[in-house]
Amino acid sequence: MLSKWKNLLEKLSAIEDLEEEEIAEILDAQDPELEKELFQLADQKRKKYVGDEVHLRGLIEFSNFCRKNCLYCGLRKDNKTLKRFRMSPEEIFSVAERAHRLGIQTIVLQSGEDLHYDAKTLAELIWKIKKLGVAVTLSVGEREEEEYIIWREAGADRFLLKQETFDRELFSKLHPDDDFDQRLRCQQKLMEIGFQTGSGNIVGLPWQTTKHLAHDIKMFQKMDFDMIGIGPFIPHPSTPLGQHHTDTQLKLKLTLKTVALTRILTKNAHIPATTALGTLVAGGRELALRCGANVLMPNLTPLAYRSSYEIYPGKICIQENWGACIPCMKKMVEKMGRKVATNPGHSLKNRSRVHS
Ligand code: SF4
Question: Gene3D superfamilies recorded for this chain (predicted)?
């Protein structure tokens, strides 16, 4: 068995690709030596394709209202225990301005699927933030194509729309209001419109197998996303999946292996060390940075709202003073012998999308 895994790692190192079944075999393997070698290989490929710089993307979670009911998410419409909030455009802009003054080069505007903010309101906000000279990433879910176009024209550079799983059946079990093909069509449209686009998945979901994860990784590679977010499933007690607890160490290893394999197969995609990993275990983000990740997302949501953006419980960095995440992350990066990027960290994919 050991020699079989060794062969797979050698193949992975040489051609930076594997078949779906082979990826699933690596994900299934419970061998510390294999894991160590996989993580080292992913770290080498990270260095080769994206270098030592770590990009800080300043996250502003501006509304926790959501029209949908995804089974795993604490923001789901039917969670009546959550205190809901919305920030005004003026308030959001003022946070972006302060973040820019602290050296942040990318502002990520994230919310539940909240139609309260129409296309024009968000476009005006994007336009104002862009004048600061930063990159803008949107993460506001599925909307009409015309709205995506308006936001792109207003200057938004990137759009994150995670698929969460590329398995059609699992997707429909988890998303009572969503259509698998429609989500993919949205991704396609975002790419055509010229956004740098991000996808991603959740690792450790109920009903999920390593075959599903292997398929996700191959889809990340095939669709050639600019950014890929991979986080562990952390059950929220006020959701239908609240009781689905699995072994933390197994979930950690599976998430890190997914990050590592994604780095090797997608080469130069931007991959964050997610806050969810840092929540799952202390030092989780550092572990991800050591096996393929090259992005961190300091939480810049005002303290008054931060704890209410509760997709999953126990999130780290909820009580820190506003802006404290930035020096903390810089320290983390420097301690690892890496450096914080001083550029906006646009996509490294070789295509003709306009980068502002
Ligand atoms: S995952 Fe997104 S769309 Fe689904 S309930 Fe949560 S915030 Fe809403």
Answer: Aldolase class I (3.20.20.70)
